[in-house]
Amino acid sequence: MTAHDTIQPNLRFSQVGKSLTRTDAPGKAMGRTPYAGDYVMPGMLHAKVLRADIASARLKRLDVSKARALPGVVCVLTAADMPDRTIATDIPGQTGRDRLKTEQQILIKERVRYFGEPLALIAAESADIAEKARRLIEFELEPIPGVYSPEEALAPGAPVVQGTDNVVSTHKIRKGDTDAGFAEADMIVENTYVTPFQEHAFLEPEAGLAWVDENEVITIRVCTQVIEHFRAVADAIGVPHNKVRIMGAMVGGGFGGKEDVTVETYLAILAQKTRRPVRLEFTREDSFVGHGNRHSMTLKYRTGVKRDGKITALDVQILADAGAYVYLSPYVLLYSAVNAPGPYRVENLNVHARAVATNNMFTSAFRGFGGLQAAAGYEQQMDEVANAISMDRLEFRRRNYLQTGDPISTGFVPPSAIWTEKCADLAWEALGDPTPSEGPVKIGRGIGAFQQSYGRLTFLHDTSEAWVGIEMDGTVTVRSGVTDIGAGQASSLAQIAAEILGVTLPNVTVYNSDSQVTPLAGTTTATRALYMTGNAARLAAEAVRERLAEVAAEKFGVDVAQIGMEFNRVFVTDDSAKGMTIADLVKLAASRGVHRSELAIFRAPFTDVLDPETGQGQAHPDYAYGAHAIEVAVDTETGEVKVLKSVAAHDVGQCINRAAVEGQIHGGVQNGLGYALTEEMLYKEGRLMTPSFSEYLMPTAMDMPPVESIILESRSGLGPFGSKGIGEPSMTPVPPAVANAIADAIGVRVFEMPITPERIWRALEAARG
Amino acid sequence: MSTEKTINLRVNGREETATIPPHRTLLEALRGLGHVDVKCGCEKGDCGACAVLVDGEAVDSCLTLAQSAEGREITTLQGLGTPEAPHPLQQSFAELGAAQCGYCTPGMIIASESLLRKNPAPSDEELRIALSGNLCRCTGYVKIFEAVQAAAAVMRQTGETK
Lengths: 769, 162
Ligand code: FES
Ligand code: FES
Description:
The structure holds 2 protein chains of 2 kinds. Chain A is an alpha+beta fold.
């Protein structure tokens, strides 16, 4: 244990940290929670999207006359009907920073850049008619040469996807002197790791309903992680920002896939044009090509090491496939660069990362956001280096882990505890006795340690707002724009407010996710909701508590510090006979005109961008650390992998809801196992060959191993009560842990994920020579 | 051209009528009648989000023609219990954190109920097999397994399974 062990050790909670039934849980279990696709309105139209079926082409002809003539069709729109409309695909900002140049055509004008790019929008009296109309649209695409991998895209004379060249973004990190570091090394280990595209595969396809209300406000009920997109939508359709309102609904899974605009713009345009309510729900196939996937990356690691395990230099070259439009690629790539060395001390570091446009599906945010791909690189490389110097894999890591107070790659010192070592040791130990190998079935074990930020890039100047008020009967209302994507984002605000105001969780109701009514909380992305909005709710609740406590202190004739509030009662801490219900306290406060609500804003640290040449500076507010251990059985005859054990150890700072933390870990494991083993997006000249769940295989109930969660609470994080975050961190270490376990089992490494039976078999064949 | 037909559907114990063309799936018909607790995840039988009980057996309603369900007993998640009197599966899913985003939950609970009616004490393996047609992207299934087993125990005790 270090000096930075659990801070605030005396904190005692009545609501926080427990596995309470989440406020959103009963509605879901009863089948009474409405999702965006469940809303209907009188006179509602049904929309469909017509998409291009070639990835790189020129639009020669588009004839919608037959579709328009079909009875029941109300509106068919093409780019010709809205000539200059584009939408920014940049990070949604409540920031002062300018956008990147990331305009995308809403509908294809002339050039098709990816398979599935939208050509036309249809609105009709029924979904059947809309679908029929979609099939009546005639179009001719003339194929033009495209580029389908970053390597192709970088080749001299390669076709340019958009703009002047295919490099979308570059990031550099330079620290120390890598030449000297490599010269000093006893050994240099060089490997290239390839990570795949990944589909979010949330169970709820994108859906929404839009209408123009009585105040000429285009109102969109939609499943999104980001209601702040109302600004981008307003800009795209040319109305003032306060004339677009986005109302979220419970989101049926996001994982980054509902972070960019999806159906909103189409809905807004159709509602504006028809002045009738319009509903649009993506089919699963639409969904596969309707949002950006995870960047496939090639990560080249070159590590200089001493025989005693000291890393003397590290050079990392990263090449990411950004697909046909920029979207969040520059930011994803920045995460990869910052995290390239992982949770290790590397004094001499050189990182060069590039994102390159291709005619593949555009890529954008996905749980782990570039940090995950980096982890697949650095953790596999740590094993390879350990093997090269014949050192135990955990021991080699122990000699290099960042410790609390150490600077990371950018020179920034994370303000919280770094407990990677403790987590890795605990996870490894929890694997217990090894399962014995049997015949061709070999057993192997792997570890993945990681570093993953929580909170958005600090140069974005992130803020979040929440309002907390207490009613005359002692019930509490929280209002905040935060979108709930299933991790309990709203419920954790309730738990925080309940803790501070001394009420029990069922007495708190959260109203969330309305861009014009609830205070804007910022995005539910980047593992930031708890950190940012949790803090805003905390500040608001504390302000209300303070005022109520003053009233109570005066009433009981004691000091404010002696006032306790718990389980719907207010009392004097050393004389609990003196007390009353919170409801009575609120009534008393109200009779004196005390302000019983508060709107609070929380600001993350604001910084400038990193130094463009050296990458030095602060990129994120803070980082989470932990590790994952895996045991696998690999059948060396068939290449089949079975995951036998999975242990997650995370320092989450402080659990708000323990069951919800465990749930995030379990889901992260499922996502990570799929990524490492089975989930494969196959493209042929940019055409997605796997647009369904019978072709794109994520782990089912049959595939999941038991998962053990070791949850540590350093209480050192920047979130409320010292919390950090677990949304992304839960997944990040899983893929390399799996890869390392497989390599351990079969004695050779498969350098490309997903590690399919075929790839294993090939690697074994190659090793057999 | 399709000819519309008016059919009677018995949903959650109530008679309802729908006028639909022959190709209309049970999923579309039920949602059209306002039973939006039946979820659509793929329309291809790949995800299980649309599962309902037809005569006590879980089926993917997206693969079932509405007309074929005429005269049969259809139960959706809402038909299993009410907020005042929840089904043990609904209770355990809520209390044990088995619903995260909740989109797979209707299908998961229906598939679990179908299993428990036939097999009140499923083994871990039997449970996994029974739920293997229901995808979930949020929970890794771990708490779903826990919730089903917890509900099964309650149901065995209270004799709710036959
Ligand atoms: S919607 Fe029926 S199985 Fe997916
Ligand atoms: S809880 Fe989200 S898909 Fe299962």
